[in-house]
Amino acid sequence: MSKLGPQRRATDKKPSYSIGDELREYLARFNRDMELPVRYSQLLHWDEAMPLYDKDGEDTLWLTVVYSPEKMKHFSQGLKKIYAMLKTDGDLSFMDHLYVDRIDFCTFGNSNPFRIRIVNSHNDNQDYYYIKKADASRIFGLELEHLLSPNRMHYFTYHNTLAEEHIVGIPGDVFIDKWLNSKRLKSVRIAKELVKFNERCFIRLLGDMRAYNFMVDITPDFEDIQLKIRPMDFDQQCYNGRLNFYRPQFFKENNELVFFCTKHLNIATSLQYQREEQTHIYRRMQLGHHRFENLLTCMRATELSTPEKVKQLRTSLAGFYKHSPFEACESMGEIVSVNLHRLAHALRSSQQPIYNHFTAPSEDQWE
């Protein structure tokens, strides 16, 4: 468990934005809105709660919650069904040997999730998923991740409840402390993945990617070890007004990783990786064009921030890209739409995109 994130986020919460009619229609159309047998509000009525400690005896700031036998019997069947929906398209015939081992409640963060631990009784293998308060910002973040990144996201909504799969990996701050200088990992591959992740966040305006808000997935390959950085917190999708809030390279919590990467990459190579990521995003936009444009239409119609933050971000992006259409944006959804269409136009017309140069920030530039 990350030790940096909880203390900060407990006092710096973003307001939750409701799911409007346009977004609800989108979710239903693409099979994201399904009736769930257990709702978030029901799980709030526990009988007992106790602190959850990690293997080193540190307080994780999660609570393990306990329900009466009657409630737990009802919840167990419903939570197994939700797990089946996420994993086997609702086929319960594979669920008889599974049981709900533990339910934890997160005391920090915007969505205050419940983490459900599912265990296989045949081999004691465990898996997790989350029940959260549904928030439009997070749902747009999940959808953009699903459509524009290499990662597929599995989740369902029902009224004000969000059921979301677990993202496997090592928290970024733990990776920096314990893995960054490992001789088992190739330095250039770490640097390459951070540059590409930084680019993805900036292009689709996913904010607050401090080390404790992303995961590093380490996968052995036939000759070496591959890495992939994945966001795990989507609550700050296009909410903040500050430009650098959408560039992971500017968070002081990421400094050690950023300086490591600039040490192992020259500018030409960094630009190559950025262009590769831009091209991949453009191709994904083309591949799912109808669904992608439908999502942007929903975003433009949904309140996701304050007018002050919208004005601040549109002015900053207009100056950064020297692209006047940003100035006409009246919502965060419009800003995201202009930013992505700007990239698509540049690549489609073989223009040279304006790059967000990956450099280590000075102390006065830290977010």
Description of the molecule:
This protein is α+β, with helices and mostly antiparallel strands. The chain has 2 domains: 20-165, no CATH class; 170-365, no CATH class. 41% of the residues lie in helices and 17% in strands. It contains 12 helices and 10 strands. The chain has a 7-stranded antiparallel sheet. Strands 8-9-10 form a 3-stranded antiparallel sheet. Strand 9 and strand 10 (225-231) form a beta hairpin. Helix 7 packs across helix 8 (255-264), helix 9 (267-287) crosses helix 12 and helix 10 (289-300) packs antiparallel against helix 12. It is globular. 37% of the residues are buried.
- How far from one another are the termini? 22 Å
% residues in beta strands: 15-25%
Query: How confident overall, as mean pLDDT?
Result: 92
Helix content: 40-55%
Count of domains: 2
Q: Strand-and-helix sequence, N→C? A: HHHEEHEEEHEEEHHEEHHHHH
Largest sheet geometry:
7 strands, antiparallel
Q: Going across the major beta sheet, what is the strand order?
A: 1-2-3-4-5-7-6
Gist of the model:
By secondary structure, the chain is α+β, with helices and mostly antiparallel strands. The protein folds into two domains: 20-165, no CATH class; 170-365, no CATH class.
What's the arrangement of secondary structure elements?
Blueprint: H1 5-9, H2 21-29, H3 40-43, E1 48-53, E2 59-66, H4 69-88, E3 98-106, E4 114-120, E5 126-133, H5 136-148, E6 155-158, E7 161-165, E8 170-171, H6 172-178, H7 187-204, E9 214-220, E10 225-231, H8 255-264, H9 267-287, H10 289-300, H11 307-321, H12 332-348
Antiparallel strand pairs: 1-2, 2-3, 3-4, 4-5, 5-7, 6-7, 8-9, 9-10
Helix pairs in contact: 7-8, 7-9, 9-12, 10-12
